[in-house]
Amino acid sequence: MINFETPSVIERSMVMMKMMAEGMIRPISRQYDENEHEKPWDYINMVWETQKPMNKKNLDRQLGRGKPTEEKPKEKKEKRPPIGYMLLAHVVEMMSWGDAAIYLCTPDAGLGGTAIEAVGTPEQKERFLTRFTEGEPKWGAMAITEPGAGSDTAAIQCTATLDPETNEWILNGEKIFVTSGLMAAQESDGFVVVWATVDRSAGRAGIKSFVVDAGTPGMSVTKVEEKLGIRASDTASIVFDDCRIPYDNILGSPEVQDRKKTKGFKGAMQTFNASRPIVASSAIGVGRAAFEFVKTELEKNGVEFPYGAPRHKLTAVQRDVMDMEAQLKAAWLLVLRAVWMADMKMNNPVEASMCKAKAGEAVTWVTQKAVELMGPLGYSRKLLLEKWMRDAKINDIFEGTGQINKLIVARRILGFRSAQLK
Ligand SMILES: Cc1cc2nc3c(=O)[nH]c(=O)nc-3n(C[C@H](O)[C@H](O)[C@H](O)COP(=O)(O)OP(=O)(O)OC[C@H]3O[C@@H](n4cnc5c(N)ncnc54)[C@H](O)[C@@H]3O)c2cc1C
């Protein structure tokens, strides 16, 4: 049964996260928005240093390692349900309340790590993720989108060919709009998880994911985007030109078992069940920043918010602000359900897409309302409201656009396959 109380361990972490978001992230928000290709190195290095021991503990737990059993008999503790994704959702929401783009600069295995968690073997999890605890790498990225394949991931053209002589995969193709692509592909700083096809004629069944270490010859960053929002985060184009990687860097099975079945592809798609609720959490953090700012400003100017009063007795401004809050809370409840299911290892594609679609729409609307309600001041660069409005829209685009996530929900609820409902 889902429990709506926030676990105390999360509440405690949030006290620290709020201090960090308020004291470290928010103050540098404007600076790194204005200077798009600069990196907040002070913040990155500080987080990296403090994060290392935490990473190690978490990974040991995930990989079933730990201290040798102590001699004295342990008291039997009540088994607590896992809260990994639940905690992550809260952390990301709070950091994005500080600044969503700077949150994306935080050293982390990122979406690449989520992919390895979702489809990697225990040996691959150990090999690729443990390195995070040992100093390098610092960033993971996920490269799916191509010039001719965005929403339609099955149209991927990037190829992975096995060289039987050296037993290496050779990657060829171009990936665009890779979040943290520059950081992850830079020499010794990270890895990129790349989706490529081992057999174009097999369609979806031929698509597999591969881990490419930073600095691998044949992988190069060809462009860093200039963007509307989340400007502190780098978004890169990466070209693979006869890029050779070890055979064991394929995630999951290399076999294209049955051309009609898409088991491998479905495995790769599972990554989204974990990542979409986290993107939704980030969206809600941005929305909450805008909502709280506006509500506080209006209260300072004597506007009251009589919760429970009949709607027809409210002013337009009161109604707008209450609707902003309701939209964000509705999206957050959907996130909680999706991450709770992920923690329980339940299949959650509908819930993951639902919360992502709702949060993307909610944050776009809420931040626009916030600018509108503050008038010219909302539009001015003096405040962060205009920035939050720019940062909001990406949540309705990456990790599946709003339309695509709604399509996924509709297919699942109505029982249609993708070929039947396009
Ligand atoms: C800042 C940024 C960061 C990104 N980070 C990453 C990343 O880390 N890794 C990565 O792989 N990609 C990333 N992307 C790419 C992103 O995931 C894609 O842009 C997105 O999936 C949409 O694909 P597309 O751009 O090709 O648009 P298209 O698929 O061409 O879609 C264009 C429009 O048509 C709509 N549409 C398409 N098909 C349908 C349909 N069947 N029904 C209704 N509407 C439809 C879409 O919703 C959209 O509005 C990023 C993009 C941006 C802007």
Give a description of the structure:
The protein is an alpha+beta fold and 422 residues long. It folds into 3 domains: 104 residues, Butyryl-Coa Dehydrogenase, subunit A, domain 1 (Orthogonal Bundle); 113 residues, Butyryl-CoA Dehydrogenase, subunit A, domain 2; 152 residues, Up-down Bundle (Butyryl-CoA Dehydrogenase, subunit A, domain 3). It is 49% helix and 14% strand. It has 13 helices and 8 strands. Helix 4 crosses helix 9, helix 8 runs antiparallel to helix 12 and helix 10 packs antiparallel against helix 12. The longest helix is centred in the C-terminal third of the chain and has 38 residues. The mean pLDDT is 89. It binds flavin-adenine dinucleotide (FAD).
Compact summary:
With 422 residues, this protein is an alpha+beta fold. Helices cover 49% and strands 14% of the residues. The protein has 3 domains: 8-66 and 80-124, Butyryl-Coa Dehydrogenase, subunit A, domain 1 (Orthogonal Bundle); 139-251, Butyryl-CoA Dehydrogenase, subunit A, domain 2, CATH 2.40.110; 263-414, Butyryl-CoA Dehydrogenase, subunit A, domain 3, CATH 1.20.140.
